[in-house]
Design brief:
The complex is a heterodimer of chains A (about 270) and B (about 300). Chain A has about 270 residues and is of the alpha+beta class. Helices cover about 25% and strands about 10% of the residues of chain A. With about 300 residues, chain B is mostly helical. Classes of the chains: A alpha+beta (about 270), B mainly alpha (about 300). The structure holds iron/sulfur cluster (5 copies). Chain A: Keywords: 4Fe-4S, Electron transport, Iron, Iron-sulfur, Metal-binding, Repeat, Transport. Chain A: Pfam families: Fer4_4 (PF12800), Fer4_7 (PF12838).
């Protein structure tokens, strides 16, 4: 019985040894747990977080894995990750190809979240950023084969903004058009309805997490045409707009019949 | 040791109080564990949504939010400041356990408790040696460890492996390989370390122990003078060191079991054939003559009591 052992005078050496042993054991356990937590942070590309989810790093600090978002989703879109399933155990996610997010206008999943892991500031589901659809296979997409499947385009809740059909020349046939589904990241919420609906056995359009779907401009990049618009004049003072050399009959002769007008003129620049 | 020590544990209590009487609190406890699990299960099973969520966080009748304070604490040290709902939920839970005894969570709610109790039962049946007995303080070190790891990794770290929420969430939402951790604990308690998990290592129990440090509801060895040294209470108590000061105390010592390690399971009450123990509050001043009074008549007992 542990009480009996106390009767002996406390051996200082033994006490220190015991403390060291416990501390070392905890340090080992802590390192293992830390390593596991670090590794479990990687979210598989197919796993999408619910609307309003904080960036993955913050999300794992915020979500207590209560599943209230899961319960309040009327379409059973969300599930809690089981141990060994990919996303951090117990955290909510969905797989677009299985059940996409229906983009509820009242966003019940966000309302249900008690912790703010799903950001309550998200009040318009159109601003959600669960991922970005990418037409990953521009060869097998039926529209790329010259057909008019268009399903992904038709089902998109943000049709004509998040996804459009862009007319391109069909090089293969030489005289047909292709209507390529084209996603516009600014408007795409990542709901996954397009991926879910793609008629191919393996979807040609897939929702990817932002880190995979997008590049990023350097912080120092300025878009001249936007700055010019904002300023209402050339960004550099006193710039001379030289005539553009454009193809056409009568080079440099913009007034000649068949010549080209430049797409835009620098506002306020001297001719 | 008295002759009675050799009787099977609880045999005398069953003989005097009947089987039900000698298992009253145990039965109530099992009912309570089933009740709390059932509350969460009738939603997904029968579509009756009295409680949504799980032990980490829940919503009862669409109004009462409850949050596991330890899970939320990890979230806070991981530098996320939670919304008010979660904080309120945690405060309610803290208040309740601070009142009725933190480790009431262990014996009346926690779904791992039946698992480790089962392991202990089998452990005794098979006569397995008690094995590795880490210091009881280890659990506090582990508690500190998981908070440090949460802070260092910026995640709710314990929830990656917490077998308690894993089991409960598994039953309510889907298990995956979560059962392996639960089986691991069962086997650990069975073969590696007697009562190893709940009584030595579990940082959740440690946390709730701290919460209930000054809890109102306590077990008291009020009738300790009647103790006949059968030792059954020590045999059934998961934290037997808590009994000694109360039961073996002198008349001027309090008969209350004040150690926050006591889980308020009431098993000692059940198993005592002479009804030494009962539930009371920590301010109970009812006179409880110690064994020293009785010992005056029997010097043999006095030497052992010391
Ligand atoms: S927006 Fe609606 S469908 Fe989408 S995850 Fe939330 S509750 Fe489910
Ligand atoms: S409701 Fe919030 S805290 Fe709960 S599982 Fe969903 S995201 Fe996590
Ligand atoms: S994921 Fe697809 S369906 Fe959803 S908004 Fe984006 S393009 Fe539209
Ligand atoms: S549904 Fe699939 S195959 Fe059809 S156009 Fe969209 S991506 Fe292409
Ligand atoms: S002292 Fe009694 S109530 Fe407390 S843990 Fe031990 S057996 Fe349970």
């Amino acid at each position: 019985m542990p009480a009996a052992a106390k009767a002996k005078p406390i051996d200082r050496r033994r006490f220190l040894l015991d403390a060291a042993r416990v501390a070392a054991g905890c340090a080992v356990a802590g390192t293992l747990l830390g390593a596991y937590a670090g590794q479990a942070r990687a979210l598989p590309a197919e796993a999408l977080r619910p609307p309003g989810a904080l960036p993955e790093g913050d999300f794992l600090a915020a979500c207590i894995r209560c599943g209230l978002c899961v319960r309040d989703c009327p379409y059973d879109t969300l599930t809690l990750a089981e141990l060994g399933e990919g996303p951090a155990t117990g955290t909510p996610f969905f797989t677009a190809r299985d059940i996409p997010c229906e983009m509820c206008e009242d966003i019940p999943c966000v309302k249900a979240c008690p912790t703010g892991a799903l950001d309550p500031a998200l009040d318009d589901i159109g601003d959600a950023n669960m991922g970005i659809a990418v037409l990953v296979d521009r060869e097998n997409c039926l529209n790329a084969l010259g057909l008019r499947c268009d399903v992904c385009y038709r089902v998109c809740p943000v049709i004509d903004e998040a996804i459009t059909l862009e007319l391109t020349h069909n090089e293969r046939s030489g005289h047909h058009a292709m209507f390529m589904p084209t996603v516009h990241a600014e408007y795409c919420t990542g709901c996954g309805k397009c991926e879910k609906s793609c008629v191919l056995p393996e979807a040609a359009i897939k929702v990817l997490p932002e880190r995979l779907a997008r590049g990023k401009l350097g912080e120092h990049y300025r878009l001249g045409w936007e700055e010019m618009q904002e300023k209402g004049g050339p960004v550099v003072e006193g710039i001379i707009d030289l005539p553009d050399r454009l193809p056409g009959p009568g080079t440099d002769n913009l007034a000649a019949p068949g010549g080209f007008e430049p797409a835009f003129k620098i506002p306020g620049a001297s001719e | 040791m008295s002759e009675k020590t050799k009787l099977p544990i609880g045999a005398e209590a069953v003989a005097t109080k009947g089987w039900i009487g000698a298992h009253k609190w145990l039965l109530l406890r099992r009912l309570s564990q089933a009740f709390f699990l059932g509350l969460f299960l009738i939603g997904p099973w029968f579509g009756l949504w009295i409680v949504k969520g799980n032990l980490a966080g829940s919503l009862t009748l669409e109004t009462l939010p409850l949050t596991d304070p330890l899970v939320l604490l990890q979230s806070i040290v991981a530098r996320h400041w939670p919304e008010m709902t979660a904080i309120l939920g945690a405060l309610i839970v803290l208040a309740v356990y601070a009142l009725i005894g933190g480790r009431v969570y262990c014996s009346w709610v926690c779904p791992i408790n039946p698992v480790t109790d089962g392991a202990y039962w089998l452990h005794n049946k098979l006569g397995v040696p008690k094995g590795w007995q880490p210091k009881k303080s280890t659990r506090y070190w582990l508690l500190a460890m998981l908070l440090i790891v949460s802070a260092a990794t910026g995640t709710v770290a314990w929830e990656f492996v917490n077998p308690i929420t894993m089991l409960q969430r598994g039953l309510v939402f889907g298990m995956g390989f979560g059962w392996t951790l639960v089986l691991g604990i069962f086997l650990f308690d069975l073969f590696v370390s007697r009562r190893g998990w709940c009584s030595h290592l579990c940082p959740v129990g440690a946390f709730y122990g701290l919460v209930g440090n000054k809890a109102l509801l306590r077990v008291s060895a009020t009738n300790r003078a009647a103790c006949d040294d059968c030792m059954d209470c020590f045999a059934v108590c998961p934290e037997m060191h808590v009994i000694t000061p109360a039961l073996r105390g002198k008349t001027e010592d309090t008969p209350l079991i004040l150690s926050p390690d006591c889980t308020n399971c009431g098993r000692c009450i059940d198993v005592c054939s002479v009804d030494v123990f009962r539930f009371t509050n920590r301010f109970d001043k009812a006179p409880a003559p110690g064994r020293d009074e009785a010992a005056r008549k029997s010097p043999a007992q006095q030497t052992r009591a010391a």
